[in-house]
Amino acid sequence: MNHANSLPRRTALSAIAASALGVSFSSHAQADTTIKLIVTFPPGGSTDIAARMIQPRLAEKTGRAVVVENRPGAASQVATQFVAKSPPDGNTLLVSFDSHAINPIAKPKLPYDTFKDFAGITLAVRFPLVIAASTSVEANDLRGFVELARKSPGKYSYASTGVGSMNQLVMEDIKRRAGIFVLHVPFGGGGPAVQAVLGDVASMTLLSYAALRSQIAAGKVKPLAVSGPKRLLELPHVPTVAESGFPGFEAHSWIGIFAPAATPPATLKRLTDDFQATLNSPDIHSKLTQAGFEVMATDGAGVDKHLRTEYERWNTFVQANKLKLED
Question: Please, are residues 14 and 42 in contact by the beta-carbon 8 Å criterion?
Fold first, then answer.
């Protein structure tokens, strides 16, 4: 037998067999590679809720296993640094929160460069914050709460998802406009912040409707106002902050998906397409909307631009008000 001639023949037969199965060796290896969605906060918060809503359909779309991995700590720095140092192969992605734009303001010595170490995939969703108070607070709307805080400076507090978080900045903006003092109590995520209000450790918090929905429905917290430009369909009786004595006020939290900066453009494009198809699929779009999220599903350039815009907006606010963002 001529072994020299048999080797090419065997290779050709293997290729034909692979073709008949509709796969190639390289694509099969890719299909077996898990996509990890690295969430910056613990379970129970907005980023975790949104990631887990997206996860099953993204797996269907890509034909790959998709897992949500929570890596909380240091106001999202732990997860963000992990992704920045991960291989740029499109398999490890950052599910970022609004803190991604604010951390460079609050923490000048980050262990990564927010604007150079990541490549945008999509601005997935944005959402207004619901200002929700403990049932022990004797106010049923933001106007009433402001009056209470004016009469009793220092009596009330608010729980945030961490120093330099969007909910801290939004509440600090409201405090300055209203001329009131409300103590800031930072926590490590939306879940712990909700528990702080339920346990009367803090008087109120500002989180997504998704993170507060079950507690609002059960009457365990009272929604006072919504930070967006219009009322939520699910909370038609709850006024906006603008309607509550702060004309023109508007603020949104947001969730973006990022990859390590050196990820190849073709990989980024494929991921953007997969996320856009997932976010815009009727069932996922409906679930996200019902949870108070506004589906954005931008391309990579869109989320990169949004990151920069949010950074500039809040950096201007912090500098103008000489706000100290310290742990």
Answer: no
Distance CA 35, CA 91 (A): 5
Q: With CA atoms as reference, report the closest residue to 81 among 52, 107, 55, 49.
A: 107
Strand, coil or helix: 125: strand
Q: pLDDT (tens digit, 0 to 9) for every residue of the chain, 327 residues total? A: 444 444 444 444 444 333 333 333 333 344 458 999 999 988 888 899 999 999 999 999 999 999 999 999 888 899 999 999 999 999 999 999 898 999 999 888 999 999 999 999 999 999 999 999 999 999 999 999 999 999 999 999 999 988 888 899 999 999 999 999 999 999 888 889 999 999 999 999 999 898 899 999 999 999 999 999 999 989 999 999 999 999 999 999 999 999 999 999 999 999 999 999 999 999 999 999 998 899 999 999 999 999 999 999 999 999 998 888 765
Residue 287 neighbours by CB distance under 10 Å: 16
C-alpha 308/C-alpha 123 separation (Å) is: 12
CA distances to 155, 181, 213 from 202, rounded to whole Å, are: 10, 14, 18
* The token pair that represents 48 in the structure block: 């975790």
Give domain limits for the chain.
21-127+253-320, 130-244
Give CA–CA dist 271/268, Å, rounded.
5
Q: Does domain 130-244 have CATH number 3.40.190.10?
A: yes
CA 222 to centroid of chain Cα atoms: 23
- CATH 3.30.565.10 applies to domain 21-127+253-320: no
DSSP E strand stretches across 35-116: 35-39, 66-70, 92-96
Other C-beta atoms lying within 10 Å of the C-beta of residue 216? 17
